[in-house]
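Customer escalation, tier 2.

The customer says the design service returned an amino acid string that "doesn't look like it belongs to this structure." They asked us to rerun it and document both sides in this ticket. The original structure tokens are below, unchanged.
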């Protein structure tokens, strides 16, 4: 394709007014999902981190830095989720740009502690639809200059999160109580487990920067065997090398554990698809976990939109 055609494409693909719309840049796709739901077409929303990207390890590119500096509003998660973006985010604040750290708007008493950073809380708030909905309530004020309807749209967004929560409660109530154990690669599910009565264990801890230790693997195998846990779960944004060790370790002790599926932890699924929305992503996780742990939930999920 010639250079001229390449240059012409974006202009053809976007409505004429799109380029003049206020630019909101978010770090994660979960944040972009909430901004889109509340602001509709009043702003253009760009998420820096795409499908399967690990926010704990993500380093901004030069183009990201330019986008952030040019944005009318930057929405980040905060509480050290974007561990390798802190320099550029601090630069934005120093420059007096509009920056909203969504997780940091919640009262500290509602957040879980962060074992690795005493000054921060567990950042994975999107895992609990009700907690996420409360954080999203900070968005209308930030979007007010451009999206006057955001406050009204918030009501519909909260209702969708509440419906998801009701579905999760119903699904997890069907899992036999001793099997309400969620073993994942890293500790992204603290809020989720607390909300739905699932005991949690992970291989790596709350960030993904450390490797699994042998003693950690052995302790997890012993727990899986003694509790007769039927399944463990991989994550789309983190490599799952140690999962195989857990399955083989349990098998050597005469207990069959299977890989219950791959969960979305710190990123959404394919953009434009159902799991590319927070609702679809959580529906996938709830449905996959409940079914693999011996509970009942429709294979196609809350909205009949998951691949069965
Ligand atoms: Zn994480």
């Amino acid at each position: 394709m010639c250079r001229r055609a390449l240059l012409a494409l974006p202009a053809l693909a976007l409505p004429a007014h799109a380029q003049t719309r206020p630019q909101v840049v978010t770090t994660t796709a979960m944040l972009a999902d909430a901004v889109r739901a509340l602001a509709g077409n009043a702003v253009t929303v760009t998420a820096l981190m795409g499908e399967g990207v690990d926010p704990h390890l993500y380093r901004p590119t030069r183009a990201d830095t330019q986008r952030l500096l040019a944005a009318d509003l930057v929405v980040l998660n905060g509480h050290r989720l974007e561990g390798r973006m802190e320099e550029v985010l601090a630069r934005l604040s120093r420059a007096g740009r509009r920056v909203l750290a969504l997780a940091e708007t919640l009262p500290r008493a509602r957040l879980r502690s962060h074992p690795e950073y005493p000054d921060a809380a567990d950042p994975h708030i999107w895992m609990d639809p009700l907690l996420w909905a409360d954080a999203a309530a900070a968005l209308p004020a930030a979007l007010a200059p451009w999206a006057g309807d955001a406050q009204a749209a918030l009501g519909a967004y909260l209702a969708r999160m509440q419906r998801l929560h009701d579905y999760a409660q119903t699904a997890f109530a069907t899992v036999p109580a001793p099997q309400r154990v969620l073993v994942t690669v890293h500790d992204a599910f603290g809020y989720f487990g607390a909300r739905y009565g699932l005991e949690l264990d992970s291989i790596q801890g709350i960030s993904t920067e450390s490797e699994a230790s042998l003693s950690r693997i052995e302790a997890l195998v012993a727990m899986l065997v003694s509790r007769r846990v039927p399944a463990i779960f991989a994550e789309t944004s983190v490599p799952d090398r140690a999962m195989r060790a857990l399955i083989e370790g349990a098998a050597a002790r005469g207990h069959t554990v299977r890989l219950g599926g791959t969960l979305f932890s710190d990123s959404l699924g394919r953009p434009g698809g159902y799991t590319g929305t927070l609702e679809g992503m959580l529906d996938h996780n709830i449905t996959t976990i409940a079914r693999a742990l011996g509970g009942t939930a429709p294979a196609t999920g809350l909205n009949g939109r998951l691949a069965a």
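Tier 2 assessment: The sequence is consistent with the input. Residues 56, 124, 186, 188, 265-266 surround zinc ion (CB under 6 Å). Strands lie at 23-26, 44-47, 73-76, 99-101, 181-184, 199-202, 231-235, 258-263. Sent an explanation to the customer and offered a walkthrough call.
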